Amino acid sequence: MRQGPGELTPRQRLALDAAKLYYLGGMSQQAVAEALHLSRPHVSKLLASAREQRFVRTVVADPRESDQTLLTTLRDRYELTDLRLVVPVGRGPMDRRRALGTGAAEMLDSHATSDRDVVGFWWEGAGQVVLEAMVRMRLRPHALVQLDGAGPDGAPDAALSAFAARTDLPLHTLQEPILHRTVAARLEAETSPQTRRILTLQADCDIAVFDAGLPSASALSESPLVSEEERGLVAEQAVGRICGRFIDAEGRVVAPSLSQRVSGPTLSDLRRIKRTVLVACGTELIPVIRAALGNRYANHLVTDVETAEALAAYA
């Protein structure tokens, strides 16, 4: 929740004074210290505090991320409400994930994500880097609710548990496994008070953030609860997965019997959420990204420039 002008503490006011003199006035830290009658180390701490509280924002304007021809082409083709392009620093998987997470958090911030919004997130994949970027940017929605549940074996995700322990964000996790043995088992699990509370929050989502993945790149696809027939259908027909649902190139669910046993929002549910943010990059994901956007499972996209150019070139 953002503070009003009358709610600033004396230290915050001092941090603002120091930031204005240093960043806007072009003064050295020593000159700021003399002007405010403080020590230079104290000024350094005040400037760090100003950055942490977002009184100061550093903007790097990479022209590759604001290519208007590319942005307009994709917005028009897929009827996107918003599109954010990123250029990762480095070529490693974590470099791409970190850039995507920051881009998604910036997109949420630009839409004035407020303390009234319920944000749903799919933890596996991009969810972790998006939430960590939200913490850095001090975004604080009304609630953050997990969409994907625990692993197929029912064990809680260790990284999510660690994140929940160190953040003060209003985080609500789903303790039920993502995949159940039968539809009846899923329905039975959804009757518990705790699960009903999470499902109610999921239904109230103003925003959903999720990624796309290859059919094989998921713990779900390796679960012993997936039958050989279902595994064969996924291998033959699926171009990827979103929110635990394997889809073909036309955006249709592959292996419906498997999808019916998966916890979390269905593809139809995604269409009913006001803002659905797909966070994905990689030319190998072009078919599943196209299927997701073409079927309105996502109306916002965060991707890298290389993937965006490949999407634009796709006939």
UniProtKB/TrEMBL annotation:
SUPFAM superfamilies: NagB/RpiA/CoA transferase-like, Sigma3 and sigma4 domains of RNA polymerase sigma factors. It comes from the Bacteria. One of its GO terms (molecular function) is DNA binding. It holds the Pfam family Sugar-bind. InterPro entries: NagB/RpiA_transferase-like, RNA_pol_sigma_r3/r4-like, SorC_transcr_regulators, Sugar-bd_dom_put, WH-like_DNA-bd_sf. Keywords: DNA-binding, Transcription, Transcription regulation. The keyword Transmembrane does not apply. Residues 69-311 form the Sugar-binding domain. Belongs to the SorC transcriptional regulatory family. This is Sugar-binding protein. It comes from Brachybacterium ginsengisoli.
